[in-house]
Design goal:
By secondary structure, this protein is an all-alpha fold. It is 45% helix and 0% strand.
Length: 132
């Protein structure tokens, strides 16, 4: 079976291409910085600077991806607490990340954030969305 060296090499090469050609849309692979927001917080008090801002920086493109950074390609700049607070006040922050049908789902073209990350943001909002 497969005595010809060329045939074996061709089959090996095709098998290698087939296996290495598989790709999975893994959130950690697509957004390597997600590791900073990967662990769910169980703190009683959620802080903007320590908890919410890193999630937004990682998943909303306020950093390198620039979907919602200073030169926002996504239309809405999220560069500081004041920008985020406006989104809290009009309820669009929680509406977009929970994929509420009345809002544009974010992250655009992706799945929802992990439930625990959404819960962190919701808890922060419930606690008054303070800039701390």
């Amino acid at each position: 079976m497969f005595r010809n060296r060329k045939t074996r090499f061709t089959l090996f090469l095709l098998g290698f291409i087939f296996i290495s050609g598989c790709y999975y849309d893994d959130l950690e692979e697509l957004h390597p910085a997600a590791s900073i927001a990967n662990d769910c917080v169980t703190a009683d008090t959620i802080l903007f600077s320590a908890h919410v801002w890193p999630i937004l920086q990682t998943y909303c493109g306020t950093g390198d991806i620039n979907c919602h950074g200073a030169n926002a390609t996504g239309g809405t700049a999220i560069t500081n607490y004041s920008d985020v607070n406006l989104l809290v006040q009009d309820q669009s922050l929680i509406g977009t990340i929970t994929h509420d049908p009345n809002f544009h789902p974010m992250p655009k073209g992706g799945g929802k954030l992990k439930d625990c990350l959404i819960q962190e943001i919701q808890t922060w909002i419930n606690q008054g969305a303070l800039n701390n």
